[in-house]
Amino acid sequence: MRNFCDGNCKKSISDMYAVNVFNDTVMRERLPKATYKALRNTIEEGSTLEGPVAEVVASAMKDWAVERGATHYTHWFQPMNGVTAEKHQSFIVPTSDGKVIMEFSGKELIKGEADGSSFPSGGLRATFEARGYTAWDPTSPAFLKEDEGGITLCIPTAFCSYTGEALDKKTPLLRSIEALQKQAIRVLRALGNTTSNRVITTVGPEQEYFLVDRDLYKNRKDLVYTGRTLFGAKPPKGQEMDDHYYGCLKERVASFMKDIDEELWKLGVSAKTKHNEVAPAQHELAPVFTEANIAVDHNQLTMEVMKKVAARHSLACLLHEKPFAGLNGSGKHNNWSLSTDDGQNLLNPGKTPHENAQFLLFLCSVIKAVDMYPELLRASAASAGNDHRLGGHEAPPVIISIFLGDQLTDILEQIERGELKSSKQGDMLGVGVSSLPMLKRDTTDRNRTSPFAFTGNKFEFRMVQSSGSVSDSSIILNTIVADVLGEVAERLENSADPKAEIEVIVREMVINHKRIIFNGDGYSNEWIEEATKERNLPNLPTTVDAIPALISEKAIKLFEKHKVLNTSELFSRYEVQLEEYTKQINIEALTMIEIGKREITPAVIKYITEVSDSIIKVKSISESIDTTAQEKLINKLTSTLNNFNKALETLEKKNADAKSVTGDILNKAMFYRDEVLKVMIELRSYGDELEGMVDGKLWPFPTYGELLFYL
Ligand code: ADP
Ligand code: MG
């Protein structure tokens, strides 16, 4: 085909896509056949990787990376604090003639020593045995990171302790994927499927974020230190006009998004949709879904790339769940499904779901799993940041329920009555203009208020925090569904008539677990009432309420049974998460104290002085001039400043007291929630009141209006 740009135009997407990934195509090209086959076996079947194979792969990987300018490699891993970590090593090996050669051995590929005693371990690793190991995860492809610091070969790895306990978010994810695959295949076999070899968990994470001007951002200590604004009066305009959602992109934002797409494509991340979200300055990016393990890695990379590219555009990308009070927060939607290696989506209902016994069995297994373990799903989205978002009237409520939509709800009702006959069909939708095409109406409308919604051929878990890893919720979903599928498999395998048994199982599941299905308005107060009082569903408003589920007897039994997390790993996660919660609030409190003392108080005093001076000057002209307005203002300013100061002193005291709370980490977390956070809210209200009174030119940091609209 003729090339229209004669080499002068920019690279096409297909030229750029995955150029920085050591993926299957590259491996096939560069590895000897036998090595390639052995590696594929490891990736697909989980067979143990032999030393000589690793040796050949390492050498090919290094050659590929060095040809592209890489000088260093790093084991890239995901410690329990939800970010990614890396320690760079160069490939160089000095030779006897005073030169260097580039080398990379199989051993270096497979195993690294992370020596990271300062990563959170929740007591799993005392400092005297601080050794940690990173282990190559061949199921997620290695990639090159390109930035001002050079080009680095990144090898996705799992991170574990000297004694083999998981210290990261990848190890349990891989274990949960295996657990689910094992049970799902059993079910498929029992249903007579002999062709599928594997069941794959698929994940498509939608990522919300805010963009603000970098110079403004730098003048906000709260954003810099904590990711959210701790002060800030409401601007005259918020999101009430609904003019931002899907609105046309500002050029500066569009240019950022274009760069993000290209950077991600080079890394093999299939960024697909981008649009403006509900709040001003809020946006979303969604990739095409892929295998869970890769999707999690890709989402971590996406967050990293977003921050980096934002800086290049003199922007700051805010991933916090609630950067601005009074506006929508950001979440991450975990779109989750199961498919077979021969391409069958097990949650695809087909045209006539009522005839699709396999679909109904898998659907009801998910329903049962969620109803059995709602606390765990809730816990998977718990963090100090997300506490500000969940349960508000813009984000999913903290009560877990499932939205199924009309068609499936109707089918489940038929099942319950024991007379399954039909599937409601989506009809044609005319828009009343003859020149426009007739559209096929979906069988269900959307429901944005549900935390866990069936959306056509997948479930969408919407509680996940925007800044967190999508691994946690995937681990929980995989494990709880594996558990139910295990029971199902057991029954089918022992049944003389599996077909008849499916009907029995599905009907039982519907009857016993229908309380979790709710298609109505999840934001309404009536729902909270009904959910907690009539349906007995758990309502766990904060992280402190949610995290203890991780160490419940029920959870320990579940995770031990499926070998996803053992008891000490669960306790370590419990501790790490609560500790992170307390640390986060402590930093926020300290930041408020600093801003309060060093920025707000001096600005207010300056203004009070100006106004006082003005009274003296005015009176010097004539005692009879009325200065009531100034005097009123001074009164109001000083009384608010006094309240502000009192709250500030209380916050200082409470935050110091928090340090001495002893016993289980839960006590400390509770103290932060009930004592420290409470005063922070009070302090903020006085601060925001002062902002509304003080001369705008004297206010020490950018306002909400500037942050949100001056882009
Ligand atoms: P919305 O939720 O706004 O309707 P989309 O329809 O664009 O968004 O889909 C959201 C995400 O769901 C995308 O990342 C998409 O790739 C993902 N997705 C679609 N099918 C599946 C599936 N079978 N498994 C997991 N994720 C999926
Ligand atoms: Mg969505």
TrEMBL record:
GO terms for biological process: glutamine biosynthetic process. InterPro entries: Gln-synt_C, Gln_synt_N, Gln_synth/guanido_kin_cat_dom, Gln_synth_cat_dom, Gln_synth_gly_rich_site, GS_Type-3, GSIII_N. Residues 634-661 form a coiled coil. Keywords: Coiled coil, Ligase. Residues 169-600 form the GS catalytic domain. One of its GO terms (molecular function) is glutamine synthetase activity. Signal peptide: none annotated. The keyword Ligase applies. Pfam families: Gln-synt_C (PF00120), Gln-synt_C-ter (PF18318), GSIII_N (PF12437). Belongs to the glutamine synthetase family. This is Glutamine synthetase GlnA. It comes from Clostridium cylindrosporum DSM 605. The lineage of its organism: Bacteria, Bacillati, Bacillota, Clostridia, Eubacteriales.
